[in-house]
Amino acid sequence: MKKLLLFAVLAVVFIATPAMAKEGPYVGGSFVYSHATGSDIDYGLDDSTGLELRIGHSFGSIAVEGNILSVNQTGAPGYYDADFNGVTVDLRVSFSQAHEPSQVYVLAGLGAYSLETPIQDFEGSGFNLGVGIEHFFNEQVALDIRGVYRFIDYDEVNGFTGYNVDGDMLTIGVGLNLHF
User: Fold this and answer.
1) Is 94 helix (H, G, I), strand (E, B) or coil?
2) Three-state SS annotation for 9-78
3) Do 49 and 171 meet the contact criterion of CB atoms below 8 Å apart?
4) CA distance readout (Å), 169 to 34, 110, 127
5) Cross-strand bridge partners of residue 72
6) CB distance 148 to 128 below 8 Å
7) Residues 6+ apart with CB under 8 A from 52
8) Quick count: other Cβ atoms within 10 Å of Cβ 141?
9) Which terminus of the chain, N or C, has less C-beta within 10 A?
10) What are the phi and psi torsion angles at 11 (to 5°)?
11) 149: which strand partners?
12) Which residue numbers in the chain have pLDDT < 70?
């Protein structure tokens, strides 16, 4: 019975007539998969999951959004777990027509990041490049799937500056955006 109910709900969501992209403010959230790719940190961190929250404003084919990202990176065997956090501001440009329910986009932005372990704290900045698709189920609700490569340079370790730690990170997120 539960499977039948779940199937019915999913059928209604996916069969419902999609609406066109909407201009104006929106909020959203995603479950995020994170993979460390930076040469100075990738050996000690396993792939992990976390959450990303966003608030933005769409001006049609262009949107500006702010994101807060939090991932508990699991340490590889013999290494410590780490908390990976970031705050970003991104510009998102859609390549789809405004009347289409699925909006393919690229994004670029800047961010401030931290990676905290029990023995070391890294802080730095970076820039983001990503691609994604936002599919509108109706005028207010949209599925958002995105991949973002974060070019991160941690220049502060345990409060001391002058470092250059390569901490690049790839994140893939799946979530919902609510448009107002």
Assistant:
1) strand
2) HHHHHHHCCCCCCCCEEEEEEEEEEEEECCCCCCCCECCEEEEEEEEEEECCCEEEEEEEEEEEECECCC
3) no
4) 7, 14, 11
5) 83
6) yes
7) 29, 30, 32, 67, 68, 69, 70, 171, 173, 175
8) 15
9) N
10) -60, -45
11) 129, 170
12) 1-21, 42-43, 77
Measure the CA–CA gap between 101 and 13, rounded to whole angstroms. Answer: 13
Using the structure block, give the residue that is written with the tokens 């909020």. 27
Token pair for residue 2?
């539960």
Structure tokens that stand for 134 in this block = 């936002």
CA torsion angle 125 110 128 84 (round to 10):
40
What are the structure tokens assigned to 45, written together? 């961190």
If 0-12 CB within 10 Å is exposed, 13-18 middle and 19+ buried, where does residue 89 land?
Answer: middle
The whole-angstrom separation of Cα 41 and Cα 134 is 31
What is the per-residue pLDDT for 37? 87
